[in-house]
Amino acid sequence: MEDYIKEKAILVGVNVKSDPHFDYSIEELGNLAEAMDVEVVGVITQNLERVTPSHYVGTGKTEEIRALYDATGANVVIFDDELSPAQLRNLEQDLDAKVIDRTTLVLDIFARRAKTREAQLQVEIAQLQYLLPRLVGMNASLSRQGGGTGGGFKNKGSGETKLELDRRKIEKQISKIRRELEDIQAQRVTQRKKRQKNAIPVVSLVGYTNAGKSTIMNQLLNFTNHDDEKQVFEKDMLFATLDTSVRQIDLEDNKKFLLTDTVGFVSKLPHHLVKAFRSTLEEAREADLLLHVVDTSNAESDYMIDITNQTLQDVGVSDVPTIYVYNKADQANIAYPFVKQNEIYMAAKEGKGLNELLEMIKAKIFADYEVHTVCIPYDRGDLVSYLNEQANILSTEYEEAGTVLKVELKVADVNRMRSFFI
């Protein structure tokens, strides 16, 4: 078995036209590298009006990168933007080093974290689409590249893929994955229709990666259901969870809703990846309510909100009522729990603000519930049982004509019970 060699990386970024978010972008690139167990041993940046078409950075910077690469004993250079095939080829040649870009790094993280068949296929198709235009004249560099970071891609590394597949084979593989994804998507649509038929409201968690979406899901489950078995994986790192989780939240008054956790976003999220995860993100588009989770302790939180909103817009998620959940308020010296219109400041890890959040959710998704008094004949005990299980009974009386219930009904049940109204 080969000895594992920890990768050491030089990060390289170009600050185009004094981008105010540039420093954060480089910091995030370091966090992404860390998520793949890559040690950052140096950072080189350059201010330019536009990136250099041939090498991304200027000639002098290329020499500076080479010198730092040799001095630090690095074995990979990671660039903060997606490199064109020509840039990738030229840099590998002139640096005589393994070169990857931000896109490869993100794809690599996704490949390592994907657990379900759907997520694995979505990542694989994004990897292949990224690879396709980079095949020409890249034999040497790709064999050296041998995939992404930290031991390569979960499925196949870029290098290995090139050695095995020519362009036509890759295109054939993409078509095959697309067909399989379409089948999975069809199942998802069926499940969604079934949920809609049952009239269970859907609440979707969205937000930047590591904002605390999984923590909020777990805390709500624990707060309402006390069910540890349904907990989802959570960890303080980027892209801890990729797979869409759907959990039912049962409330005391027989109301219930489904809570879905979607993939987290990040700046410069690869275009192919957004396209590949489109069907997963459609869960958010079909939701009755979005919980937009924000890490309020991060100085770049406004930027993160913009990135999330833009990505949601790109996949067609719009006009869905939204509650902004400003999480980690305990780390931001902000008073919490604090509610203002459609915003809540809370600390999910501490469990502070869960009650207030639940009340906000209930006010939004159960706003169209109606209170009615019904008289159910004694021979329709099935309806009384149904209402006891599925509705919020406010009072019960027994009269000669039948059981008289004052009950809070969801819209689907209003029509069903209309003939029993009194």
Gyration radius, in Å? 26 Å
**What's the number of extended β-strand segments?**
14
Tally of contiguous helical segments: 15
Distance between the termini: 78 Å
Q: Please indicate the percent range of residues in DSSP E strands (runs of 2 or more).
A: 15-25%
Mean of residue pLDDT? 86
What's the SSE pattern?
EHEHEHEHHHHHEHEEHHEHEEEHEHEEH
Q: In this structure, how is the largest beta sheet organized?
A: 7 strands, mixed
Strand order of the largest sheet: 6-7-5-8-9-11-10
Query: Given the C-alpha coordinates, what overall shape results?
Result: elongated
Q: Residue ranges: pLDDT <50 for 5 or more in a row?
A: 139-147, 150-156
Tell me roughly what share of residues is in helical segments. Answer: 40-55%
Question: Which structural class fits the helix and strand makeup?
Answer: alpha/beta
Account of the 3D structure:
Helix content is 43%, strand content 20%. It contains 15 helices and 14 strands. A seven-stranded mixed sheet has the order 6-7-5-8-9-11-10. 38% of the residues are buried. About 4% of the residues have low confidence.
Topology:
Elements: E1 8-16, H1 22-35, E2 39-48, H2 59-72, E3 76-79, H3 85-95, E4 99-101, H4 102-113, H5 117-131, H6 139-145, H7 158-164, H8 167-197, E5 202-207, H9 213-224, E6 245-250, E7 256-261, H10 271-276, H11 278-285, E8 289-295, H12 301-314, E9 322-327, E10 338-340, E11 343-345, H13 354-365, E12 370-376, H14 381-390, E13 392-399, E14 402-409, H15 411-417
Parallel strand pairs: 1-2, 1-3, 3-4, 5-7, 5-8, 8-9, 9-11
Antiparallel strand pairs: 6-7, 10-11, 12-14, 13-14
Helix pairs in contact: 1-4, 4-5, 5-8, 6-7
